[in-house]
Amino acid sequence: MQMRKLALSMLLIGMSSTMVHAADDQKSEATSDTLQKIKNNGVIVVGHRESSVPFSYYDNAQKVVGYSQDYSNQIVDAVKKQLNMPNLQVKMLPITSQNRIPLLQNGTFDFECGSTTNNAERQQQAAFSNTIFVVGTRLLVKKGGDIKDFKDLAGKPVVVTSGTTSEILLNKLNEKDNMKMRIISAKDHGDSFRTLESGRAVAFMMDDALLAGERAKAKKPDQWEIVGTPQSHEAYGCMLRKNDPAFKKLMDETIAKAQTSGEAAKSYERWFNQPIPPKNMNMNFALSDDMKALFKAPNDQIAK
């Protein structure tokens, strides 16, 4: 009897020890400390897009520039100041809609400011800073054509960039309304526009600001127009790993300072209402009421 009691006691002790270690392991896996990682390695790795005009893209000198990149630069400066590392090495890493989340999760890069939508689904995989931009999802089409709104896409080929929320929305719309569209998923926004420009698609669905960027890059911008009732309103945020409150705090404070000081409004004017590289194009994309409200009251809320 005593032996059985002793065995039971040892079993319970063992189970308790296992549970404690499991909890510790789970806690370790659940937390991130990007600032400590940066300090230990002496380098910060910043994700960026290659052709998301005017948010994050290469100019003629292959330098990463854009509205979102301005925020990235400010965040890097804030990290240097907080860690007292003025000579911190900065590495830029090109990312895509398809690989940005897995490369963030596995530690390949530390954060990105581009054209990434903050939504409930993505919050299961990553964390987001305060919002840097608010958009609506619409259509880019040939001016003077038959496509005026989404209902006109029934039975027609439509292109969208792979790995984006617009791709999900378009597929849902196609299924829900039995529109029988032929959906073409392109690798990036530039490829999507080339598909439209070549006539392989009659419309390109994406966030309106990105569509304005592709229109501005076109050989003949006046041939294209943005149409359609927005299918969603979306908030772009800078993306970081989950459960990293210290790094999120630094990012949020940096973004809020830029927005409330007027610096973000100057950045917006530079990238959306003035000639920009690589072709000195002007997007002529006025500051929306949603953006004005954001600059007055910075927040990290999902757009509704």
TrEMBL record:
Main location: periplasm
Signal peptide as annotated in the record: 1-22
Keywords: Amino-acid transport, Periplasm, Signal, Transport
Matches recorded under InterPro entries: Bact_solute-bind_prot3, Solute-binding_3/MltF_N
GO cellular component: extracellular region; outer membrane-bounded periplasmic space
Domain of life: Bacteria
Protein's cellular compartments: Periplasm
Solute-binding protein family 3/N-terminal domain segment(s): 43-275
GO BP: any one term: amino acid transport
PANTHER family: AMINO ACID ABC TRANSPORTER PERMEASE, GLUTAMATE_ASPARTATE IMPORT SOLUTE-BINDING PROTEIN
Family classification: Belongs to the bacterial solute-binding protein 3 family.
Protein name stated in the entry: Glutamate/aspartate ABC transporter substrate-binding protein
Naturally occurring in which organism (per UniProt): Hafnia paralvei
